[in-house]
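Hi support team,

I've been running sequence recovery on a batch of backbones for a student project. Most finish fine, but this one hangs at about 90% for roughly twenty minutes before it completes. I'm not sure whether the input is malformed or the queue is just slow. I've pasted the structure tokens below so you can try to reproduce it. Let me know if you need the job ID as well.

Thanks,
M.K.
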């Protein structure tokens, strides 16, 4: 079959969907990957896999009717030219505008993957203006989903809460909505390693630098614990998303660094060395689909401290492979992190349990097999040499 995969960020095609694209190719299908812009590294990686890349007109952030109409037209033309048997879109704009364009172009089957609800579905910490803006944006996004999703053959969700919300709002039917265990994790690429022999735990958070990821709470917890345990280390790895309304400012991050609470590592294409150096992985996010970085940390064999919120709570059995804390609760986060400082033996035992859960539940091969089976793709056929 001819399959088109639509993304809003080109590197995600390799980082997040590379194993799925490879599985499709290995099953003998012809795969076209689409995203805005041309990234030479991404293009070369996809070409080496055997995937064709096509740039589309799409703006990741903001709602500009002219830009978004151009996106629908760009995808319509692509579908008419490539004539895919199946198309898959993930993240909000490929889901919405890809669905609409596929319907107009007569694509036989379109599938969507809801990888998270985005900042519009998360209540801002403060500010009546922010709350009003998000309510308006939330209403617009729901309307667009309502227009786009009925034509989908199936819609994949990464947690039961997001699925239940979309069904309750009437955006999808129960028959359409399929839950998968996130994007999965490559257990060979993220091999289990023993925890490092630090005198004090080294905590790590990897994420886009957004308030919705709980980065402010992480910094506040670090400030409290560093005063009590100066040897504890709190690392932050990720990239700025300055066009996002929930973005952390550079001045705010610089202040945390100057005060000695946070060690900022910049951004990277390979998080594995930092995962291996960490004792405990922390993600106090407000809401997720299923956080990829948590799965990577689990596969590496690290305990997890995350929030008891959709997408995050599925990854932790509280007290077995880590701890769940309430959203935006700094004192609870401090208490959870302090347990690893006072009881360092928990790091190895809980890290081992994390790896076991990753193997049992989040193996990317299992996740991709479920996705491909739902899409009606042959997962057993070996592509011709």
């Amino acid at each position: 079959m001819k399959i088109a995969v639509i993304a809003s960020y080109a590197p995600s095609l390799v980082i997040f969907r590379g194993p799925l694209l490879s599985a499709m190719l290995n099953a003998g299908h012809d795969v076209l990957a689409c995203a805005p812009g041309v990234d030479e590294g991404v293009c070369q990686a996809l070409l080496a896999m055997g995937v064709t890349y096509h740039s589309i007109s799409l703006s990741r952030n903001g709602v500009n009717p002219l830009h978004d109409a151009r996106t629908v037209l760009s995808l319509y033309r692509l579908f008419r030219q490539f004539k895919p048997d199946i198309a898959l879109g993930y993240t909000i704009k490929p889901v919405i505008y890809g669905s609409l364009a596929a319907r107009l172009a007569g694509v036989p089957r379109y599938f969507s993957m809801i990888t998270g609800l985005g900042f519009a579905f998360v209540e801002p910490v403060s500010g009546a203006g922010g709350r009003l803006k998000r309510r308006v944006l939330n209403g617009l996004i729901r309307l667009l989903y309502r227009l786009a999703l009925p034509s989908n053959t199936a819609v994949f969700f990464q947690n039961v809460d997001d699925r239940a919300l979309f069904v309750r709002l009437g955006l999808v039917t129960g028959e359409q909505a399929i839950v998968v265990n996130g994007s999965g994790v490559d257990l060979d690429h993220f091999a289990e390693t023993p925890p490092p022999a630090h005198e004090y735990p080294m905590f790590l958070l990897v994420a886009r630098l957004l308030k919705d990821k709980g980065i402010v709470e992480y910094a506040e917890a670090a400030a409290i614990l560093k005063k009590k345990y100066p040897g504890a280390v709190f690392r932050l790895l990720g990239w700025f998303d300055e066009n996002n309304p929930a973005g952390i400012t550079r001045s705010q991050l610089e202040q945390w660094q100057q005060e000695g609470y946070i060690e900022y590592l910049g951004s990277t294409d390979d998080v594995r060395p930092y995962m291996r150096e960490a004792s405990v992985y922390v993600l106090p996010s407000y809401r997720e689909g299923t956080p990829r970085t948590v799965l990577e940390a689990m596969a590496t064999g690290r305990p997890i401290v995350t929030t008891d919120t959709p997408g995050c709570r599925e990854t932790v059995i509280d007290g077995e492979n880590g701890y769940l804390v309430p959203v935006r609760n700094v004192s609870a986060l401090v208490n959870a992190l302090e347990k690893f400082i006072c009881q360092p033996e928990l790091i190895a035992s809980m890290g081992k349990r994390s790896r076991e859960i990753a193997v049992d539940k989040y193996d990317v091969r299992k996740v991709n097999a479920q996705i491909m089976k739902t899409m009606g793709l042959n997962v057993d056929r070996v592509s011709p040499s």
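--
Follow-up from support: It reproduced on our side and the slowdown came from queue contention, not your input. The first strand starts at residue 2 and ends at 6. No action needed from you.
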